[in-house]
Amino acid sequence: MKTSLTLGGLLIGGVAVLLGQFQANALPGGEDGGVAAGPDVIVGAIPDVASYGSATVNGVVTRAYAFGTTSCNIGTTQLDWYASPNNQHPYIPMNMYRFYNGRFEQIGMSWGKHGFCALQQTLCGSCQSAGSGCPSLLGVGCSDPYSASLNGSQGDLGWRKEVNAATGAFPGTFNSGAPSAAATIGRRLQVAQNDLSTTNFPGAKYVAEGQYIHPDDAASGNDNNNASWREFTVSSTYAITLSGATKQQQPAIQAWKNFDPTVNLLFVDVEGDGRFVVGFTVRDLGGGNWRYEYAIQNLNSDRSGQSFTIPLPSGVTISNVGFKDVHYHSGDPYSGTDWTSTVTSSSIKWETQTYAVNQNANALRFSTMYNFWFDANSGPATANPASSLGLFKPGAAGAPTSASFVVATPAAISTPTPGDFNNDGVVNGTDLATLLGAWGGTGGDINGDGTTNGADLSILLGNWG
Fold first, then answer.
1. Percent of the chain surpassing pLDDT 70
2. What is the pLDDT of residue 34?
3. Which tens digits make up the pLDDT trace of 210-262?
4. Does residue 159 sit in the same domain as residue 57?
5. What is the domain-level CATH number for residue 422?
6. Are β-strands 10-13 and 4-7 bridged in parallel, bridged antiparallel, or unpaired?
7. Cα(387)–Cα(364) distance, rounded to whole angstroms?
């Protein structure tokens, strides 16, 4: 079983947290490290890519792609794969990410491919076939390939708003009321052309991600290993070439840690719902300033994220506060308004509208990742208070409204005691000697009047010991 620890009433697994010092390795591959009971679908490979050209949307040149996904059933029972109007089949969203200058961002997303029948192949090992041809079941150990062209078929792509990723539920007859797909780029994985520019982002690394969402897989508790990723390169003409092996059973945020070993990753599991993965790192910018970077990927939470709050100690100055989300499109009704940020003496908070105000607010929904960052004039603390992710959708009676977890936060800036010239924490004879040695000059000026005199001596003696 996974090792977890409880913070704020919620589980945080996959990471050891001790006295504010973080130790995180690669996220575990499977649910338990062995064969899962029941059906368990994963992305066994991302084998190919299709490019569909570009169109201009609201003044932005936008390109469309699709990635192939080969599924594997690594569980112990067959997995339903019935075509619509039956809803016992997988829903397959695809995403795109970029790593550049230390930041890992999601830059594109698709609607989700609705599956229909399953071939019985052997990508992930021996296959106990569920039947000949392309039956409506995926056998134990068997794999089923969906090429990029199939995953990019606009008629099979369903909007995300119909999907509950925590339960895997969605309507059998999908896209009820959805607008028709725009030519070329509609419903496919869309990304702004500038986000792939080799001129804008020289040396950037790129990642493709596929994920399978299935009601039987979720009901068996095997839905936390359903995403996999693979690197790709981009040419000056925006052609994509896949590279390296598919990293099975890992959400794309794991790539951030692969690219930057200073990154830490945490599982944050919401009781009765789904999983978020929180990533963070801190960089010394020099001159007494530090960059705090955070990314939160919603793997399969239906309740979604509404706010992110980080506690701040006294005396810390915050600047360059930032936020980055990903663009919904093709008629998915969600708002694209950036989260607002508020800095107080005790915290920094990013948030979108609440569910009560706007059910289509820009919440951190399943199969998406948002970024948060700021600069501070203080390095990371050695003991960190809990941060929190506020949840968007209401839960059952008594369910938590937020998830608590520990990430790197700035340390308090201590204010020296007036008269403690050597900053050893005590005003004593050494400090008195410093003051007397500077009498009449400026070296022992405590009150800021420009001269070391009796007024400064009185302040020093008042703080003696």
1. 92
2. 56
3. 999 999 999 999 999 999 999 999 999 999 999 999 999 999 999 999 999 99
4. yes
5. 1.10.1330.10
6. antiparallel
7. 17
Distance between CA atoms of residues 206 and 147, nearest Å: 20
Give how many domains the chain has, as a whole number. Answer: 3
For residue 373, what pLDDT is reported? 98
269 is written with which tokens? 């599991």
In the chain, the N- to C-terminal Cα span, in Å, equals 54
Range of the domain at 254: 26-260
**Which of 260, 275, 306 lies at the terminal end of a domain, its last residue?**
260
- Token pair 């992110």 is at which residue? 308
Q: In what helix (H) or strand (E) does residue 218 lie, and over which residues does it extend?
A: helix 215-219
* 209 and 221 share one domain: yes
Task: Indicate whether 406 and 424 sit together in one domain.
Answer: no
> Is 90 exceeded by the pLDDT of residue 341?
yes
Task: Classify each residue of 132-163 as buried b or exposed e, where b means 16 or more C-beta atoms within 10 Å of its C-beta.
Answer: eeebbbbbbbbbbbbbbebbbbbebbbbbbbb
Cα–Cα distance between 318 and 441 in angstroms, integer?
Answer: 35
Distance between CA 67 and CA 312 in Å, rounded? Answer: 42
